[in-house]
Amino acid sequence: MRMASFKSVHDLLLIGFHEGLLDEEEFLLLYQQYTSLNAEYPYTSYPAFDLELKDEVECKTEFRVEKNDIPGLADTLRIPEIVKCYQGTICGREEASWILLKRFAYPCRYSDLIPTFGRSVPELAMINNKMISLIFDIHGHRLTEWNHQILHPEALETYATAVSNKGEALTNCFAFVDGMVRQICRPGKNQRVVYNGHKRVHALKFQSVALPNGIIANLYGPVEGKMHDARMLGESGVYNNMRQFAFS
């Protein structure tokens, strides 16, 4: 059974008050009770997303992807033809891909996407999160496990040569370990566990192995913000893999 939206409830309350079914006190109480805490955006005044209305320059600028590359990207990522969210919202895979790309092209709020896609903030958020889950479920192992497609011996030798040619003293350095501290809201409990003393914020930490071509070869996390980088490296198992595949 589908729940009525706040707008439909508001309309019913107005009709009930106009016809005398509710007095002023009842109307005000119910109207406030069924008022959304989120800002209301006029998303219905914008047309649905139509890729044909955008030219090549707009696509490259707004989404950082060529207009004609999306079908191939969706095939490669194995995105289903219809992306369905848990509460029933459906979206074609190409539009869902554009929503994901727009969201990650540069920092923006979901409300900033409304003029482009003509959808409400909750819909945009659910579609974006669904796409992230789909991609991670299918391809997450490429980051969380040793990826032999980009970390086979021949590729590692190419990476090490590129690093050495840039002036590095080591001839067997093929990747760089880097950490990321992502700030979070202060939790109500166990605040010290996620407090990062270096950045002085409550946070979650990630650690990645970046290749010379810019691709992330391995991603570990999230872990509590207080954890030291050296401990993260030991627990991730990346160091042992590097020793196994590094060149002598």
Could you give a quick summary of the protein structure above?
GO terms for molecular function: metal ion binding. Keywords: Metal-binding. The protein contains 11 helices and 6 strands.
3D structure, described in words:
By secondary structure, the protein is of the alpha+beta class. The protein has helices at 6-18, 24-33, 56-63, 70-77, 93-105, 114-117, 121-139, 141-144, 153-165, 229-236, 238-245, and strands at residues 82-84, 90-92, 176-183, 195-196, 201-210, 216-224. Strands 3, 4, 5 and 6 form a 4-stranded antiparallel β-sheet that branches. The chain starts with 5 loop residues before the first helix and ends with a helix. 16% of the residues are buried. InterPro entries: HARBI1_dom. One of its GO terms (molecular function) is metal ion binding.
Distance between the termini: 65 Å
Largest sheet, described in full?
4 strands, antiparallel
Flag low-confidence runs: none
- Class by SSE composition: alpha+beta
Task: Give the percentage of residues in beta strands.
Answer: 5-15%
Keywords: Metal-binding
GO molecular function: metal ion binding
Cofactor: a divalent metal cation
Features:
single chain, 248 residues, alpha+beta, 3 domains, 4-stranded antiparallel beta sheet, two-stranded antiparallel sheet, 11 helices, 14% strand, metal-binding
Write the layout of secondary structure elements.
Elements: H1 6-18, H2 24-33, H3 56-63, H4 70-77, E1 82-84, E2 90-92, H5 93-105, H6 114-117, H7 121-139, H8 141-144, H9 153-165, E3 176-183, E4 195-196, E5 201-210, E6 216-224, H10 229-236, H11 238-245
Antiparallel strand pairs: 1-2, 3-5, 4-5, 5-6
